[in-house]
Amino acid sequence: MMENPENRKRTYLDDQQLCRSWIKTLEGLRKENGLLLNRLAEALRDVDDPAFLVQAEEFQTRMLEKEEALVLLRHEVLEQLDFLDILPQPLPESPHQYTVLDSDVQKMVLDFNQMKDAFARFIMAW
User: Fold this and answer.
1) pTM score, whole prediction
2) Distance (Å, whole) CA 68 – CA 80
3) Peptide bond into 88 cis (omega under 30)
4) What is the mean pLDDT of each run of 10 residues along the chain (126 residues)?
5) SS3 for 47?
6) Choosing a second label site near 1 at 20 to 30 A (CA), which of 23, 63, 66, 99?
């Protein structure tokens, strides 16, 4: 059965919108991560407790790793968007599966929020 070109075109546009929404979400998380790193730097100026410093270093590592993961995931979404921008030319399969990207973005949001909540509890405790 042949696919209606109008339906496929609409799907391309939907896919583009989805990718753009993921990029917006990931950019928001990156900004928020930067704010958390700044807040951590401020807290480090005020405290010299060794236990605090150990935990602060752990949070800094997590935040830097999260930044790296956000950059990599954003790159994958941009690759997908670039792929969509050259459609409807006949091309090989897309560089990434939407279900995988969607799952990765959702997991990133969940993991980030858990880290942010743990950091807030850590800062409030000191």
Assistant:
1) 0.85
2) 19
3) yes
4) 47 88 99 98 92 97 99 97 75 82 98 98 93
5) coil
6) 99
